[in-house]
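Hi R.,

Here's the chain you asked about this morning:
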Amino acid sequence: MARLDDSVSLSALARLGFAELSTAADSLSELAALLGRERALLLEDVGAADPDAAVVGMLRVARRDPGPLRALSDDPAARRRLWRVFGASQGLAGFFLRHPGEISVLGVETDELPSAEKLRDDLLASVGAQDGFADSGDDSALVALRVAYRRSIAAIAAVDLAHPDPTALVAAVSASLADAAGAALEASLAVARTRLLATRSREEIAATLLAIIGMGKAGARELNYVSDVDVIFVGGTADEDILAESKAIDIATRLARETMRGLSGIEVEPPLWEVDAALRPEGKQGALVRSLASHLAYYDRWAKSWEFQALLKARPLAGDPQLGAEYIAAVQPKIWSSAAREDFVDSVQRMRERVMEHIDPEDAPYQLKLGSGGLRDIEFTVQLLQLVHGLTDASLRTRGTLESLDALVEGGYIGRAEASTFADDYCVLRLMEHRLQLRELSRTHLMPRTPAGLRILARGSGLADTGEGIWERWEHVRREVRDIHTRLFYRPLLSAVASLPEEERTLSTEQARDRLAAIGFRDPAGALRHIGALTTGLSRKATIQRHLMPIMVRWFADGSDPDYGLLAFRRISERLGDTPWFLRMLRDSSGAAESLTRLLSSSRYVGELMDGFPESVAWLDSAELLTPRGQSALDEEARAIQTRHDTVGDALRAVRALRRRELLRTAMGGVLDVLSIEQIATALTEITDATIQSALRAVRREIVPAEDDALDFAVIGMGRFGGAELGFGSDADILYVYDANGIDPQRAQTLATRLVAGLREHLTDHRVPLDLDADLRPEGRNGPVVRSIEAYAEYYRRWSLSWEAQALLRARGVAGSLKLIAKFTAMADAIRYPSAVDLQGLREIKRIKARVEGERLPQGADPRRHLKLGPGSLSDVEWLVQLVQLQHAHEVPGLRTTSTLGALDAAVEAGLIPEASAELLREAWRLSSRLRSAITLLTGQTSDVLPTDRRQLDAIGRLLGYPDRSATEVEEDYLAVTRRARRAFEHLFYG
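And here is the predicted structure, written out as tokens:
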């Protein structure tokens, strides 16, 4: 074995990246001998992805003919190109082995990729083409063509491999490869024409028009080093007098077949790539060549959505340029109207999913092209966005992926950050694909599965230093691409925009007023003003609003009050100003825009609150953000607020804002069906609890001095508040109680009264009133607003009426001293859960119930429509349950609850109320509660009467989940439910 000198020791070879050190050393020695050069000189410029393969490839060429290599070996720049190309591509090494003289292409020093004109001229010259005919039609012409093509590929690869940032050159390299493919098709067509001279006259062949339309990557100038070239052939005649069209199509078909064979057929020089015409009308079953008219007839009548998606990248590649241009001009309108087809977006999404389903599971983790997070995810996403929004925006009618991403960003259809990430990841994936295909000049889209293969890819791409590093980069890109693809490709706005009627895709001033009136706006002129204010201008915000507005207007019109919804949306948009996330979220989120339109056009309550908290729009991006935060979280935030403010006024101003914010969250969750009526009631109760607790802490610190700290004070919830059954707009029924604990009684009474006044003052909220109603206190409005625990006990012992014992059934400690709350609860338990039933008291309750039904109803109100006092409504259910509690709670522990439905369930379990009757009562209670809240959500006002206005009833029905135009159904359902509940109530209550 030849001995290496010190300058090229085995350790030196290892540092240069060689893996098979001994073999490499031997090969280098032999190569140096054949070229007559020093080994150290040959190694001065090593910079190969795979130096072992490089030296083996050069050695094989030198053994056959050392002259071409020797001619380049003294030029350092040429040596670098030799190492790079031979180290990156065993396929090109094999080409140079077959044709050693072509190595001279690596002696050309340039950092410029060959132009389309040069590639075309070189390939046509290789077959001696003149006036569209080659010098020869025999196999030697095809060999010359293929050799010239591969020489061009080697020139492209040399520039590509030398670039310091190859990802930045990916687009230019892909375009150059596509130009080379077009030139090869043109040269092969020239050979095909000459071959046909054996059976057809030159005049007939010259009169035959054949346009070769590039599709896919070839059409978009995004070709790989080795890829099928997808084409469509269009035929015709230049002169009907010389050649009838039917004959011209026959000749064009033979020309097409010969052109394909010239590039894909078996010859001395291996095939270049497959020319694939499967995207033609009817696929492989259809005619290989059709006339332009035949193509258009097919696209008009039978083409499927995917065929228009395929045409998105169509470009004349070779053949007759005028016929090619006519074809593109004719199919363009059909491409850009295809998204309006029924279920177009769904069909494209399903097609991508089918591609995924057909991937071999073993290949899936390695698939650069078809797999999850691969190139197809990027391409399908970009194409779908183009096709949908390109219906109305001509700026999106581009072919290439990167230029289309730029157009989508410029038009405001996707965010700059997402587009930048997508573009960077696309270039990384394409670079990996290029390096993998260049290695063997073979069509592959799979990541290497061996450490050696990964190491070579890392060195060849420059994307990582090690094999592990390139795999980590691949996994990171996959996750990133898949995340963006999922968010954009399945964006709900796509289906919505694609399904818009043609007349609504743009909002022209001339037609918009009539159209707005037709779809439900009562003030179309006002709506137009709002739309104009939102969409006028050149800012990115106005651009995005112009894209959103057509579909959002349609969604507003689907709501019960589109005029208010649009007005509220304008206010929110103006409040958020240039906040970058707002419009981006509406455009990109999975349903945020539709949810916002639903909220604003369905609920003035939400709209008015959202005007104060426009940032709440961000909650629409996640159902989790619309769920109540819970008592402990609210209490923690309220306490933190108090520590940040020096005065009671400032602290409680922030607490009131906290309350409004959480009311808004609950209202949004209710309107969007995230929360049930029970969850809403619990959330509203917890919000009110936290608000009162925070206010009491603050007010007490201001009013009660340290020397009087022994004073205990508490707030007791009553009625629906005590039962944790609040609805939107419900009052908070309460009692105030104190325990002097040794403080002077008069002093204690004074302090307690001042606490009540402080609570009322600081909890007054004109935007969303919190009415602390103490009318259920002993003696009602005639009694003192606050009493000591002893005074309550004395009153209930001596003078309380049956209805007051009944009211205590809902009593629940809300805020203040836990010790005092326990005392009050114990006192209340003795009264509301008596050991002996007071029959006279029960009769009195029944008498009062009958009187309330007649006396407390608003004058002129239809009793059947009153949600609280009407027959079968809330009061019937609650009074019946409370009667059962007064009678049996002492013996049945389950009845000792402030919850109406909880007590009803306990009564059923104890056999006190039949399950069938209980179900009727539950249904009436829930429906009445939902209707009360729906009225408040809709109007922003509290009302206990089911409206008679059909528009309002319909809107209420929508909030409750009824379909559009269900006013009669809502009314009939309520009357039927309460009628059945009333019968059950009368049987059980009156006997």
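One quick note: Strands lie at 208-214, 229-237, 275-276, 289-291, 315-319, 712-717, 732-739, 772-773, 786-788, 812-816.

Cheers,
M.
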